[in-house]
Specification:
Layout lengths: L4 E4 H6 L5 E2 L5 E2 L2 H11 L4 H4 L1 H7 L9 H6 L1 H8 E4 L3 E11 L9 E14 L2 E12 L7 E10 L1
Parallel strand pairs: 1-4
Antiparallel strand pairs: 2-6, 3-6, 5-8, 6-7, 7-8
C-alpha cells in the first residue's frame, strides 16, 4: 500500500507546494462500477454499458469507463497520496482544467499521482491547486489530467 505524505496545519500544507505525490495503488475498473455510475448520472451511452455492442462496434474493442467516473475517483486516490491534519474541514472548490486523453477500458487498472502546484491563503484557511494524473496500466497516455482546487478550513 502506498504511504501518503502527512503534514499538519497551514505551515505543513505549504511545504507540499511543488511536490510530486504517489502513485496510488492500482484499482480495477469493473463493469459493475461503470453501470452503477451510469445509473447515478443517467449516462447510459452504449460505449459504457452495452458490453456486446461495444465489443462489436466500439473503436475501443469493448466498453470503457465514463471520463467523469475516472475523475470521480479522486476521493479514493487522494487519501493514498496525502493526509493533511489540523483543519476542521476540506471542500472541493472546483477545477481549472480537465482532459481525458485516452480511454479507460473496463477490466483495466487505474491509479493516480499528483503534483501540488500551489498552496495559497484564503479567508479561514488555504487553497491547494493540484494536478492529478490518472494512468491506465500499460497505456502510454494518461486517461485523465485534471487541475483541481481544494480548500482546507481551520
Amino acid at each position: 500500500m502506498t504511504t501518503p505524505i502527512t503534514v499538519d496545519g497551514v505551515e505543513g500544507a505549504k511545504t507540499l507546494a511543488g511536490q510530486q505525490l504517489g502513485p496510488s495503488e492500482w484499482v480495477e475498473i469493473t463493469q459493475e462500477m461503470v453501470n452503477t455510475f451510469a445509473d447515478a448520472t443517467g449516462d447510459h451511452q452504449w460505449i459504457h454499458v452495452d458490453v456486446e455492442r461495444a465489443k462489436k462496434e466500439s473503436p475501443f474493442g469493448g466498453p470503457i469507463a465514463h471520463g467523469y467516473l475516472t475523475l470521480s475517483l479522486t476521493p479514493l486516490f487522494m487519501p493514498q497520496l496525502m493526509k493533511i491534519t489540523g483543519f476542521g474541514m476540506g471542500v472541493n472548490y472546483g477545477t481549472e482544467k480537465v482532459r481525458f486523453p485516452s480511454p479507460v477500458p473496463v477490466g483495466s487498472k487505474l491509479r493516480a499521482s499528483a503534483v501540488i502546484d500551489s498552496v495559497t491563503d484564503v479567508k479561514g484557511g488555504i487553497q491547494l491547486q493540484t494536478t492529478l494524473t490518472f494512468e491506465v496500466e500499460g497505456s502510454a497516455k494518461p486517461a485523465c489530467v485534471a487541475t483541481i482546487l481544494v480548500r482546507q478550513y481551520l
